[in-house]
């Protein structure tokens, strides 16, 4: 099942209890499955597909072979490490129940609105003391806009500060009526300005994304929510001088005074391997490296020259 499925309710990948990296203060972060984009460098590749997936962490495997015994379609082979025939696998997840070391796990759990709220509520005292709250992330949470709206309303009933992270590809009218009344901050990702490059690296056109951002930015001037644009810096893909100048010019044109630049974090490579979706990238490709401070500082100067402050993410 892919991100274009007809699921009305998202699967939850994880709920991270105490985060300091996903908004102001201490926050609980809810990660949903499913995204309409297909970014080459996705930091959470296990969140792209809306349906459940099988994750295998070979470092945890203790070679018990119990998973092999219970597989009804012989999709597992007793190699070292274990081999999975993912084309043959039917995602019955019997292997995850038999695995004693949790090397095999199901990614994507069905949770109701009330179950999610119940997981987050115990952290409310930390939110109040630190100015934090809940962050809804993914994947793309707006892919399930009715569920998201109901969840945000419940958090507001509990007096909890709300933040939504989005890649911006959503129906603007629905977003305005179902999401905006219940959100305090929007983190809006703008990956690449050039539409052809965006299509090449993210799998979709960015016209609607940029239109949505401009409209929400204008609304934020008179409404009670904040919006912060963010751009991941991916070596060799979107971080050259021309592309950064194009982004800075876009911000300047629309009166954006603050934005964030996210340094490439290559831990997503190990996640790809675990879900059986490795990419053919050479060992010396700079995309495999953590982003260096020197290039980051030089890029910050491009924005500073155009009156745009780069905020720490």
Q: What can you tell me about this protein's structure?
A:
The protein has helices at about 65-70, 95-100, 115-120, 125-130, 145-155, 170-180, 195-200, 205-220, 240-255, 270-275, 295-305, and strands at about 10-20, 25-30, 55, 75, 85, 105, 110, 135, 160-165, 185-190, 225-235, 260-265, 310. It is an alpha/beta fold and about 325 residues long. It folds into two domains: about 10-50 and about 110-310, Alpha-Beta Barrel (TIM Barrel); about 55-105, Alpha-Beta Plaits. The strands form three sheets. Strands 7-1-2-8-9-10-11-12-13 form a nine-stranded mixed sheet. The chain starts with 10 loop residues before the first strand and ends with a strand.
